Amino acid sequence: QVQLIQSGGGLVQAGGSLRLSCAASGHNFDTYSAGWFRQAPGKEREFVAFITWSGDTTYYAEAVKGRFTISRDNVKSTLDLEMTGLKPEDTAVYYCGARSAGLYSNPGTYAYWGQGTQVTVSS
């Protein structure tokens, strides 16, 4: 069992930056690959970024590539998402997740989720 507690997020103007964090506790978070997803009102949860258990490989959605950076610290059991150049279309509730197996961009392959945090980007 892995518990994920999120922090960060909030309201920012377009072009600004925010950092989201996810603190893990429980069973061997460092053995899980992990990711960030987001969900806007009326839309499905969509993939944002992924990182392997070791942190040596990352993948990003095209919409955020070059602006967002995912990272992890397995000593501290934390997962972060640094967001720069934010746009109004980035507005959503963001979720961190620990993945069990399967396609990394499919939210159905994630076994554990954080509680979600709101990111709002004003124009």
Description:
The protein is globular. Strands 2, 4, 5, 6, 9, 10 and 11 form a 7-stranded mixed beta sheet that branches. With 123 residues, the chain is mainly beta. The mean pLDDT is 95. Helices cover 0% and strands 54% of the residues. It contains no helices and 11 strands.
Q: What is the secondary structure topology, with strand pairs?
A:
Blueprint: E1 2-8, E2 10-13, E3 18-26, E4 33-39, E5 46-51, E6 58-60, E7 68-73, E8 78-83, E9 92-99, E10 110-113, E11 117-122
Parallel strand pairs: 2-11
Antiparallel strand pairs: 1-3, 3-8, 4-5, 4-9, 5-6, 7-8, 9-10, 9-11
- Helix fraction, binned, reads under 10%
Rg calc: 13 Å
Termini separation (Å)? Answer: 40 Å
Let me know the largest β-sheet. 7 strands, mixed
Spans of at least 5 consecutive residues with low confidence: none
What percent of residues are in strands? over 45%
What brief labels describe this structure?
123 residues, mainly beta, four-stranded antiparallel sheet, 11 strands, seven-stranded mixed sheet, globular, 0% helix
What's the short version?
The protein has no helices and 11 strands. With 123 residues, the protein is mostly beta strands.
